[in-house]
Amino acid sequence: MTAAPAPSSAPAAPPGVAHPKSIRSFVRRAGRTTTGQAKALEDLGPKFVLPYSGHAIDLAATFGRSAPTILEIGFGMGEATAHIAALMPENNFLCCEVHPPGVGALLKRIDEQNLANIRILAHDAVEVIDHMLPLHGLAGIHIFFPDPWHKKKHNKRRLIQAPLVARLAARLKPGGYLHCATDWQPYAEQILQVLSTEPLLRNTADAAGDGFAPKPDYRPLTKFENRGLKLGHGVWDVVFERV
Predict the structure, then answer these.
(1) pTM
(2) Domains contained in the chain, CATH given
(3) Out of 58, 111, 130, 147, which one is annotated catalytic?
(4) Catalytic site residue 147?
């Protein structure tokens, strides 16, 4: 995931749903913003990067049109984000990432590919979900390769936990989907278990299988993923639908 100072206060949880104060949609990560990324931030940021606010946003006004909106949490350097947005011009993509080089890199891709259906929030996605996203407003949610927190003692820091999934499910329209992907099998199994216990979601995978979904065509193979597959590393996709 990405790097930035943690917000000063934890997001408020819905009544009856606790969420660990330590959970954030990102981790601290070192990285240098290149000249090109810095220029993209300066030139394109005012158009495509939205300010964080403590109230629900009007998605149609934000994108200048009414269209299905997909939330992406942690887009890294934006390679998959730009690919999917170009593949699905009929959809809007609201993308959260706090790492400045990643934001700059996606802005560069937006300019190079002439993409008009992406908006970026350079803010912790947990607070964005709690305070900016209306209930039943999203057609889909993408969470690709969140930090797996490999050590058992750090598992509690993983993003995909029941309280957050409950909030995400509440913001999906009926028939909307939540798509997670990871290359760490223990995390994949945890994600599958957590999503399976959320009553507002149902698994789209074949009931006769292991619960994991085939890789949807829209999710591209990244260079990192291709390298891992060549080394025999697995990748697991989990796709659930809002009932």
Answers:
(1) 0.86
(2) 54-242 (3.40.50.150)
(3) 147
(4) yes
